[in-house]
Task: structure prediction
Amino acid sequence: MMGVCTRRNVLGLALAGLAFLACGVPVAWTADNFIIVQSTTSTQNSGLFEHILPLFTKKTGIEVRVVAVGTGQALKNAKNGDGDVVLVHSEPDEAKFVADGWGVKRYPVMYNDFIIVGPADDPAKIARLKQAPEALKRIAEAKAPFASRADDSGTYKAELKLWQAAGIDPKGASGNWYLETGSGMGATLNTAVGKRGYALTDRATWLAFANKHDFKVLVEGDDKLFNQYGVILVNPERHQNVKAKEGQAFIDWLTGAQGQAAIAAYKIDGQQLFFPNPRPQS
Amino acid sequence: MLDLSEAFRAALRQIAALDPQLIEIIGLSLRVTLTAVAIATVIGFALGGVLAVYRFPGRGAVAALLSALMGLPPVVAGLIVYLLLSNAGPLGVLQLLYTPQAMIIAQVILVTPIVAALTRQTCEDLLEEYREQLRSLGASSASIVTTLLWDGRYRLTTAVLAGFGRAIAEVGAVMIVGGNIDHVTRTMTTAIALETSKGNIALALALGMILLVIALAINMALMGIRRLASHFAYA
Amino acid sequence: MLEQPTSLTALDARALSSGRLLPLELKSLSLETGGRRLIDNVDLRISEPGISVIMGPNGAGKSLLLRLMHGLIVPTEGAILWGGATMDGQIRRRQAMVFQKPVLLRRTAAANITHALGLRGVARSERGARAIQALQAAGLERQAFTPARVLSGGEQQRLCLARALSLDPEILFLDEPTASLDPASTLAIERLLIEAKHRGIKVIVVTHELGQARRLAQDVIFVHHGRMIEHQPAPCFFEQPESDAARAFMAGGLVL
Result:
C-alpha cells in the first residue's frame, strides 16, 4: 500500500481530480444566452419568478438570472453595470434612475399592496383600522415591537412615508421597540414573528411566507399602501456589457399579453399576489 | 410554535426523496468548494513551504499577514471580490460576477491563508528536526521545500481539511459574489439563508443536516488520518 | 605531536591537484557567539587516512568542531581548507555526516536512502540498487520497506550510517553515533566504520567513550574548553598523554 502512495501517483491523481472538477462547474462565458435581472427580495420571496420565468425562457430561449437584493441595492448594482434589467418598486427612485441616464425607460409592470401584519392578540389594537399612519401611531404609543426593513428597499421607503404621515420619527426608539433589521422581507418577517411584533410587508411575500404562526393581516386597503412595480432596461450606452436586445425582449414579454397573463395567473391558496398593469395603448 | 420534530421529519423525507433541486444545490456546493480548496492547496503549500525555508527581507511580515488573513471574515472576502469583478470594477471585463467561478475565487481567497499558514508552521517544525541533516546532504532550498511538504503530508492533509471545512460552511462570500441565483449560484448555505427567510424551515433544516453530515465526515476523516499517521510513525 | 606546517608542502600540492579533500586543515580557527569564545584558536591538520577520533569532556566543543569541519557552521575567525580549497557545494557533496540522534524522514528505510541519493543527483534508475546495496552492507535489507521511524534506535542509527555510506563520501563525520545505543548496535556501527576505513573513506568520529576510542582510533585529537590540547597517534596518546587534562580524562575523573 505504501508503495502505491508515491509522490508521482498522488500528484497525478490530484491533477486529474482538479481537471474533472473544473470541467464540471458551468462556465460563465460559453454561448449561454442569459440576462441578469436585479430585483427585490420581496418579489423573489413571493415565488413569482419561479412561476413566470420558465415561460419566458421557453418562448425565447433566453435564461433569466435574478439577483435579489433590496430596491436601493438593485439600482446601485445596475448603475455599476452589474445587471441588464431592474425590476423594483420605488417609483421616485426609478424615475431618478432614468432621469440620470442609467436606465432607458420605465415601464409599469404590476402592482399589489402593502399590509401591516401582527400577532393575533394585537397589543397595540390596530386591527381593521382604515388608515395605516394611524396604526403606526398606535404602535408607537404602545411601544409594541415593530420590525423594519431599514435597508434601501421599496418597502422601507413606503414605510418611512407612512411614519412621516403619522408625524412620528421612530428612529429615536431604534433598538428599543423599533427594530431595524437591515434585512430582506422574509428575514424581517421572521424577526417580527420571533419578537411577537408588527411589520409592514407586501402582500405577495406574506402569502408565500411559511412561518406565520398565529399572525394575521391587521391593516389593509389604505390608498397609501399601494405598491407599484416598474421594470427598466439598463442603459447600454453607459455600460458596454448590457444585453440590450435580450433585456428589451424580456421587458416586452413582461408587459405584453403573455407576461401579464402569467403574472395574473400566479396564485397561492387561490389568492392572486400581483396584479398586472395593462400597457397603455399609444 | 415551531414544531421542530415535524420540521425534522419533513426534512428527512426530502432527503430520502433525493429531490433533484436538493441534489443540484449540494452538487454545486461541493464543486465550488472542492475546486477552490484544490487551487488554494497548490498555492498554499508553495507559499507556506517557501516561507518556512527561504530567508528574505520582509519574511516575518508576510508570515504575520498570512496568520491574520486566516481570520478574514467571509463577507469581507466576498466584498473585495465583488468590487473587483463588478462591471464598474477593474476586472469587470471578465464578466465573472454572479458565476460559480467568482465563488471559487472568493473561496480561494478564504482558504489559501489557512493552508499557507498551517503549511508554514508544519514545515518550520519539521525543519527544526531536519535542517542540519538536509544541509549536510547538500539539499538546495527548493528540494528542502519539496522534501518537507511530502514528509509533512499527514499534517498537511489536516490543514487542507481545515480549509475545506471553512469554505463549505461559509455563506457571506458566495452570497455576495454569486447572487444566490436559482440553478446557477445557489449553494447549500445560500439556500439555507433563502429558505429560512421564506419561512421554509423544513427545507432549510434538510440542507443544514446535510452540511452537518459533511462536517462530521471531515472530522472522522481527520481522526482516521491521524490514527494512520501515528501507526506508521509518520505524524 | 604531528607537524603543524603553515604553508603548503609538496605533498599538499599533489593532494590538491588530484582533487582529494585531505589534508583537512584548520588554521587559527575560532568561533565566538554572544561574547563567548566557544572554539579558541585551533590549529589542526588531518592528513593521514584511517579513523581520527576527537575526544574530550562534555562541553569541550567537540561537536562544534566537527560541524565546523563539515562546513555546517561558519567560523568567526580563521580558515578551514579541504585539500587546500574552501567550502562550496561540491566539497560538501563529497562528505557525509551522521548525527548523535538519528535524523530520518517519514518514509521507508529504503526511501530515506534513495531520497538522499536523489539529492546528490544520482540517476533514478540507479538509486534503488544502491540503496539495497547499502542496506545489505548494514544488515538492514529485511527492513527496507519498513517505515524508518518505527525501527529501533540501533537500527535507525545503522540506517543513517548506511545512508551516509551510500553517498560514497570521501570524508565521513560522526557525532557520538553510539551514545545512546546498546552494545550490540554499537558493535555493528563500529564494524561498519572499520569497513569504511578499509574502503579508503576518511572517518572522523567524536566520542566520549574511551573504550570506543581505543578500538577505533588511528589518531586522537583531544579538545578541552574549545582548544585543541593534543593531536597524537593513538598508541602514543593512550600510553602517554602529554597534557594534564588528557591524563585526568583518561583516569576517569571530572575534568574542569
Remarks:
- Residues 183-198 of chain C form the longest helix (16 residues).
